[in-house]
Amino acid sequence: MTLPGSTPVRTPGVLPVRSRVASALRRGLWWGVLSLTGGVERRGRLPRGGCVVVANHSSHADTAALLAALDARHAPAIGAAADYWFASPWRRRICRRLAAGFPVRRAGGGMADLLTMTGELREGRAVVLFPEGTRAEDGTLGSFHKGALVLAEKAGVPVVPAGIAGTDRLLPKHGRLRSSLVRVAIGAPLPAGVSPAAARDAVRELHDRTAAEPLRDSAVRRRVASVVTSRVGPPLAFCWAFAEALSWPLMPELLLGVVCVAVPRAALRMSLGALAGSLAGGLLALHLAAAGVQPPAPLTTDRMRAEVRAELAVEGARAVRHQPWNGIPFKVYGAEAGRASVPAGDWVAASAAARGGRTLTVGLAFGAFGLLLRRHRRLYGRYLALLGGGFAVGLGLIVRGWG
């Protein structure tokens, strides 16, 4: 029991609950961020108790990768260059709060900075250091400084090598952020008294093996991706949506669910192609209906048409704003708008707002989902089966509800 005003007693070998909770929150944050930018994988685990983790360093994203991959129970703290991350108040706050960073001077005094962490290492914390001292630009490892090894020896904890792959593509030095899968491989603890060169070799072996490991993929996804990334991709989305606005019973969002998960970077252009096709097809449906021509409309019902006629009578072209939510196909709205003599300009403007919001939102959401599933691409075939089954059930329920 702690008396008011007294200093809490810290149990030797046990990290405070506050540190572990903060570490869990940081891990969740960076896991979420990296999941959106291509995913993060981990191989291996840290040993029980405190340890000094040494890793290669080629990107600012290395810190995020390690915070996302290492166990929260170790409450990892990251050694950060004092002359960069602690040179201004806002950088210092970001480093401390989002990365549990502590300053390490690179121009004298760095060893003393490291030794301030011996107590926390003995409590079970993992101290993460980049012994190269700076980021490499060409993918090679520089020489390792001995500070991490001295710290581990003074604290009586093991040195654990870690290889990070993918961050140099995710956020290159002096480059811009782009999508990439990040992998972290954690090796076995190194023997006591290991040299800096031996530690470097262990990290390099982990990095090279991890970087060379191919990402398991689905043959179906690769075939879909080859179509989507070719010149056929956007025209396919246009034609599908155009046909659906006239007669085709399968909405373009089904196609977006297939292609945007397969190739997330194509989500925007495929969604725009589908939107353009919907607007063109809807405009043609309006003109055909005004001329008395009615293309086949499978999976539509008289009750759907009656509901749309009632909405158009009250709201005119703005009635199409209900379409993204009520389950009535877009082609029903286009045909009934033609019979109601809705002006074509008003129809296109209202349709662009209604269909644009839905199509772009759905396409980009599927793209984000595809990024989250990047490391599970081998399961793409199963995803398609679930998507098709779910769509069939949903379509059946909608038609039955409007029957």
Automatic annotation (TrEMBL):
One of its GO terms (molecular function) is acyltransferase activity. Keywords: Acyltransferase, Membrane, Transferase, Transmembrane, Transmembrane helix. InterPro entries: Plipid/glycerol_acylTrfase. Residues 51-167 form the Phospholipid/glycerol acyltransferase domain. Pfam families: Acyltransferase (PF01553). The chain crosses the membrane at residues 240-263, 270-290, 356-373, 380-402. This is 1-acyl-sn-glycerol-3-phosphate acyltransferase.
